[in-house]
Amino acid sequence: MDAIRSTWISSKGIYVKRFEEEFAGLCGARAAIGVCNGTVALHLALLALGARTGDEVLVPSLTYVATANAVRYVGAEPVFVDVERDTWCIDPAQLEESITRRTKGIIAVHLYGHPADMDAINHIAAVHGLWVVEDAAEAHLARYKGRPAGSLASISTFSFYGNKIFTCGEGGAITLDDPHLELRARMLRGQGMDPERQYYFPITGYNFRLTNVACAMLCAQLERSEQIIERRRQIFSLYRDMLTGIPGIGFQPSAVWAEPAPWLFSITVDESEYGCSRDELMNLLAEQGIETRPFFIALHRLPPFREESRRRGERLPVTDHLSTTGMSLPTYTRLKDREIESIAQVIRDSRK
Ligand SMILES: Cc1ncc(COP(=O)(O)O)c(C=O)c1O
After folding, report:
1. How far apart are CA 162 and CA 153, in angstroms?
2. How far is the CA of 64 from the centre of ligand 1 (A)?
3. If 41 and its partner were Cys, which of 157, 217, 270, 292 is the partner (CB 3.0–4.6 Å)?
């Protein structure tokens, strides 16, 4: 309300700076730059890093389409790598075989809040002279070996879409340490304008800005960040307690070094043990008014990417398996314990 009453409703105003400073602090980064959504955050990261036509970028296939779309926006080609069974994130052991002369970088995605194995990924990147982007759209305040998501790559990206832990409807941010990259990214976000000279545009930029009103909404949530995360952790642990022991229902693994963000509580359904498929279970829950989400369809199977993927001979069995057996359950801060109990009850009763 303060932002609205101040009349600073576009991308100037005190909340933009406040949000950027607070969010950078929480992410253990030197700077944060607010942008209008998480897809734009990825696009801006790739532009700032100089990704361009002819480049190849290694990405997991089990992710939201924005990760690969952003690579295409700069004229580069996403090359798909399988995910690890133990993290559901890009498999560092499989990166090297996908590196070619054209490979310029890696985008690691912290899937459903679980951090990717960033030390291993950064090591391979350093050996081959590649940059790394950390797509932390789904992993607000996750930690990897004690370090926060947002501090683990050349540039990290976030989404504040309505289903995210912190949200302003549509919004995003990048976080980074390098002051040169920061200057370039800030210019690219603001139409390419010279920070020292109004209406002088030395480069072609974009309007990727986030509004003061959106930043005020985010600042308000950051004031309550501990309560928000704590409630979501309770939701996760209640789901775990209630669903443990149901044959065929599996949980998202958590690596010993990971402190995942409690974003979406996700399960896998093994039809041979559970007696019905993931899609059948989703339908049964929908009949009870319970909305769920299937896992992302593997990107290497989608029309914009499948021909190139086939040409490269990509085989991604873990991705294919998870993509067809995984689903996410309702996970939002105001979900009540008794609602979780009744969702778990339907899952228990639906086993055949
Ligand atoms: C892994 C991942 N990357 C990028 C995005 C894109 O963010 P946005 O929807 O804010 O553009 C999302 C989702 O929303 C996501 O889940």
Report:
1. 25
2. 6
3. 157
